[in-house]
Each structure stands twice: as structure tokens, then as C-alpha cells.
Please model this.
Amino acid sequence: MLITNLVRLAEFAPDLPDQVAEFRGSYVLAPLAYAHDEPIEEILEAARATPNIVWVLTGKAPKGLMDTSPPNIIYPGYVSRDHYQALVANSALIVGLTTKESTMQSAGFEAIAAGKPFVTSDTRVLREYFENAAVYTSIDADEIAGNVTAVLQNIDDWTKRMAARREDRIAIQRIQVENARQWIGKLASTSK
Model:
């Protein structure tokens, strides 16, 4: 993913969905597709273990899942792009988890673009990309809950780390783009 023309989402994002608005800036956002590699049960148990933290789980959750969830989970369902950007911009942190070793988290790209702290799976791919800007967790409800709580207690530090990593990624991409331009220029000049 190329990170370009970064904007501050909060400056243009619309109002939050009604059920989330009162928790502006204090909720945990977990963008979900309810796919087979997402540890949904562990996320629910982490939310249950942190009743003082509001969790917002996007996507179309199965009805049975919603009926058995703890009261500190909000399900806005599928939302418009603008509302999704508002959810990202106004979250305290983003959680993106997978059970697959080689899966990159699109939620991580959203976290880095918005400068939000990120709690994610402890995989090689994610560690290589986010380095010290993310908190890595096993797929264990208690560990997920503990890591989310720790990030919230040190939110300023984790926000600074993510902002620094974003700047690093932008610098790397600029170099890669310039290298590609030079290569294309050489290729074009040799084909004349």
C-alpha cells in the first residue's frame, strides 16, 4: 500500500454513527469481515474481560454472535466510507488480528495512515512492517485484553510510535518511487 497525501481524518470525517458518537476518542475499533482467520471468540472474550472499555466491531456480525456479546461491544454493521473514516479517526486504537502467519492486516494500513496505535497478531509479516510501532499479541483473550489496556494506559507513547513509523514508511516509499522512476527512465532511453 502506498501512503500518499496523508490527511487528518478527523478534519473532514462526518459525524460518527449514532450508537458510537458518545464514545468519541475512547473506543477500541476492530474492523472485521468475520472471516475464518479472524479470532472472533477471543475478541469477544477480551471485550468481556474489559467491561470498562467500549469495543466497536464493524462488518456484518452474525445475529447469534450479537445476541451473546457483552454490553460493551457496539456493532454499527456495514457503514459508509465516510462513517468508516470517522470511526477510524475517532477511535483510541485499532485492533487487527489474524490466525494466519502470512496475512497483512488492512486494519494496520488504516492505523498507520491515521496515526492510531495498533494491536495486532504476533506474526513475522506484521512485525517486519510495523516494527516497534505496534503491540503484538497471541490469539489469547486475556493477552489481547491486557495489551489493549496497556496501550490505552500509554496512548501518547503508542501514538508517537505509530506517527514515527508512518514517517519512516513514507520516506521508504519515496525512495522506492524515485528508484522506479530512474529505472523506467533508463529503460525508456535504451529502447529509443
In short: The two ends are 32 Å apart (CA to CA). Confidence is low (pLDDT under 50) at residues 1-7. The CA atoms of residues 8 and 94 lie 16 Å apart. The beta strands are 28-30, 55-58, 73-77, 93-96, 118-121, 134-137.
